[in-house]
Amino acid sequence: MSEQELDESRVGFKLRDADREDGGLLAMVLDLMAAKPSVRTLKAWALDALAPAVGEAALDVGSGTGEDLAELLDRVGPSGRAVGVEPNRGLRTVARERHPSLELVDGIASALPFDGASFDVVRCERVLQHVDDAPAAAGEMARVLRPGGRICLIDTDWATAIVHPADPEVLGRMIDFFHAESANPYSGRTLRGLLADAGLTVAGETAATWIEPQSGAKQGFLSMMGKTSAAAGVITAAEAEAFHRGLEEAADRGAFHMSLTMYAVAATKSA
Ligand SMILES: C[S@@+](CC[C@H](N)C(=O)[O-])C[C@H]1O[C@@H](n2cnc3c(N)ncnc32)[C@H](O)[C@@H]1O
């Protein structure tokens, strides 16, 4: 199924009771995101910062399709341990189908089902934006980290989203609506403070900006943004049509722009 064919009204990351079919749709979205150069850049940066070694214990919080967890397992080897915490049952099923040897547990970031000081390495990517109590989640990740352990948080900050062309006032109403739907839309800017407040020492930070290709004006999230906003009553049907027409006309002459910045912060726990 292509990005264009996805029925995005069925896609969400809060579906705790998601079945295999829901998990499959979410997995398709995650696969499309994971292929974006900016996401690949931050995943590689995090792996370098975490430096998982043979025999170590690693944790991926909100492990999704399990691809990053499989990479951690590969690094720690058979003498180590790699565990994914994932509340979405459908995604756990997808991850097990893709990587049968993965250890996956049901759970949420703000109540990790592990003893303190259980892991040498903890990662958590594009999860905290969906979490109601991000400081509690950061505290939990710090708790399960061993002294001398490494942690990396990655997240988007939706205030960095730029969509052009669009009437700023109409776009503002749409953005306010989508921000209100998200638990923590400005997560990206908070990562450093979350780690510092959890008593960890920040060791490095970076950012990567996703620039959508011209084809993105007509498919994926943007192709639904106006229609979804109109259905919710935050813009009119005429405003939605003008929004989509403006994007498509701009893309036809190569003048469309959409970008979004994601942040990664690495930290250590004092030995
Ligand atoms: C955008 S996906 C990112 C998945 C994966 N980390 C990656 O980078 O591909 C967000 C993930 O967070 C999970 N999630 C949502 N709320 C969560 C929570 N409170 N605790 C842990 N994971 C959560 C979702 O089920 C989903 O797998």
UniProtKB/TrEMBL annotation:
Which CDD domains does the UniProt record give?
A: AdoMet_MTases
Domain Methyltransferase type, by residue range, is 59-152
The organism's place on the tree of life at top rank: Bacteria
Q: Which residues form the signal peptide?
A: none
- Any one Pfam family match given in the protein's UniProt record, by short name: Methyltransf_11
Which parts of the chain are coiled coil? none
Q: Entry's PANTHER family?
A: METHYLTRANSFERASE
Record's protein name? Methyltransferase type 11 domain-containing protein
The species is Kribbella ginsengisoli
